[in-house]
Write a structure and sequence with these properties.
- With about 160 residues, the chain is an alpha/beta fold.
- It has two helices and eight strands.
- Strands 1, 2, 3, 6, 7 and 8 form a six-stranded mixed sheet that branches. Strands 4-5 form a two-stranded antiparallel ribbon.
- Strand 6, helix 2 and strand 7 form a beta-alpha-beta unit.
- Helix 1 packs parallel to helix 2.
Amino acid sequence: MLAVVQRVSEARVEVGGKVVGAIGRGLVALVAVKAGDGADAAAYIAAKIAALRIFSDEAGKMNLSVQDVGGSVLVISQFTLYGETRKGRRPSFTRSALPAAAEPLIEAVIGAVRDQGIPVASGEFGAMMQLSLVNDGPVTIIIDSDDRETPRRRA
């Protein structure tokens, strides 16, 4: 599972010209489910989103989480994050989970973040969505659930 997380001052998502989710200060999380992902990947991604310390403290250091600053999270399902571009010019999405497997895991991420006491808004799974956001910083972080199995070492 992948999540591209952006720190925002505001964001909203529309489907068919109607706003279906909106937040003020917080995080936008574009989340993709890979074929074979399970509940453990969803739990890992949700925990990372909730605890990610990318908001500035009084000293200007990124040291606070979305929960610490009273922010919200907007979760958007985006299978295209697993688009494979090594061959040709058209991305292949064979690594992405099928909708029947992906939707419950996206809902699990939403529920797990909400269970941390963080307000969560979301897009509409499988819909064509228009996302508007103001990236604050800009700050953009990539979270990969595969990292939980192979921790990186500092040199």
